[in-house]
Write a structure and sequence with these properties.
Elements: E1 3-5, E2 12-14, E3 18-19, H1 32-44, E4 49-51, H2 60-71, E5 78-83, H3 96-110, E6 117-121, H4 131-143, E7 149-152, H5 156-163, E8 168-174, H6 186-193, E9 196-200, H7 223-226, H8 244-257, H9 264-273, E10 280-281, H10 288-296, H11 301-306, H12 308-318, H13 320-323
Parallel strand pairs: 3-4, 4-5, 5-6, 6-7, 7-8, 8-9, 9-10
Antiparallel strand pairs: 1-2
């Protein structure tokens, strides 16, 4: 699988990574055996980049990854985790003292002395422009607790603010065929600054699999059931913030663009990979088969490029007015 430089970290990572929210919580039940099978299938398919967070299952996702990598010391896998969502979302909580506590917990969970990449996990907007926050993160690097840091964002203005900071290695942002706004400013700014782009929610919480209908239901403990209106956390994390019924219609049209021999999910991932400036896309997987199918998209960049006009047309007709109006 193609590998790309992960921003200012100096590390090469696979263009298809693995998002591991589902290994912790909020996507229905996933047993540890199934979770380990997902990790195993991913690395066998060429994936060497895992993304997790301390809040996924209150650390369960990190712990599963830590145990897996402990069993496989021969693997060279970059693990990115995130911190900050286990407390009330107040700017004053983003302090060096708390950062030390949070990263120490993640180090224990992941069984790592030094964390490869730590990202602020969609904190309050004012945090991104707070110099003291970046100074605290720099301190963690100098102390050897973390090697690199980045941010996960909900909004493009937050990404642009973080990119200005000289030691920000990566930006994690929602980017998929139904969420094009980052293409305008964020990706060009990141390319110019040498900052990596980690594309999350690449399948719009499964909408872009092309398998859903308006009658599709989800488990009670699945955020696609309880967070459609943003009741639990930012609505953008569920179906990329688009109306579910509209998304189903748009996904049906997207599926019609996909060439024979390629699944709708793979085409959607390939489209993200083809965007100039994207380092890695991090779909989740609840089974080994899903993980292998996702990884195959890493060799389909030409398919993604060929979808450009159709994706733009669908976006303009269904989503732009609500999400990304022209000025």
């Amino acid at each position: 699988m193609e590998q790309r430089l992960l921003g200012r970290t100096g590390r090469l990572v696979s263009v298809v990574g693995l998002g591991t929210w589902q290994l912790g919580a909020d996507w229905g039940a996933v047993s540890e055996a199934d979770a380990s099978a997902v990790l195993e299938a991913s690395v066998e398919a060429g994936v060497n980049f895992f993304d997790t967070a301390d809040v996924y299952g209150d650390g369960r996702s990190e712990q599963i990854i830590g145990r897996f990598l402990r069993k496989h010391p021969e693997l060279d896998v970059t693990v990115a985790t995130k911190m900050g969502r286990r407390v009330d979302q107040l700017p004053e909580h983003y302090t060096l003292k708390n950062f030390r506590e949070w990263t120490d917990r993640s180090r224990r969970n992941l069984q790592q002395d030094t964390l490869d990449l730590v990202q602020l996990h969609c904190p309050p907007t004012s945090v991104y422009s707070n110099t003291d926050v970046y100074d605290a993160l720099d301190t963690l690097v100098s102390e050897g607790t973390i090697r690199n840091y980045g941010v996960s964002v909900e909004r493009t203005d937050e990404a642009l603010e973080a990119i200005k900071r000289g030691n920000t290695s990566t930006i994690q942002i929602i980017l998929n065929a139904f969420r094009l706004k980052p293409l305008d400013e964020v990706l060009p700014a990141a390319r110019e600054a040498g900052v990596g782009i980690i594309a999350r929610v690449p399948l719009a919480s499964g909408l872009l699999s092309g398998k859903y209908t308006t009658e599709t239901t989800f488990a009670e403990n699945d955020h696609r059931n309880y967070n459609r209106s943003g009741a639990a956390f930012d609505v953008g994390e569920t179906f990329s913030g688009v109306n579910f019924a509209t998304g189903v219609t748009a996904a049906r049209e997207f599926s019609e663009l996909v060439p024979d021999g390629v699944t709708t999910s793979q085409a959607a991932l390939a489209w993200v990979i083809a965007q100039d400036g994207v380092t890695s896309v991090i779909p989740g997987a609840r089974s080994a088969a899903q993980a292998r199918a996702n990884a195959e998209a890493g060799g389909l960049e030409d398919v993604g490029t060929g979808l450009a006009a159709g994706v733009r047309d669908i976006y303009d007709r269904y989503f732009r007015a609500a999400i990304h109006p022209r000025w």
